[in-house]
Description:
- By secondary structure, the protein is mainly alpha-helical.
- The protein has helices at about 5-30, 35-40, 70-80, and strands at about 60, 65-70.
Amino acid sequence: MAKRSIIARNNKRIRLVAKYAERRAALKAAGDMEGLQKLPRNSSPTRVRNRCLVTGRGKGVYRKFGLCRNMFRLLALEGKIPGMRKASW
């Protein structure tokens, strides 16, 4: 499990990206690079990290499910992910 502070920091970045999205798009369209630099760093979408919804793990996260590989496997074997079942051939 990731530290709560790391998860909280990432959630703050997500909120800032949403808050400044329109302003950032307008500045980009106008080509105002100086205006873009004055925006907060954490309002850039590239600073947001995909994290597991269950554990907060930052690596090995499947975007489609929002889960890290460990939790994905655990929940899939328990049958808690609809339509997912173990392959056999």
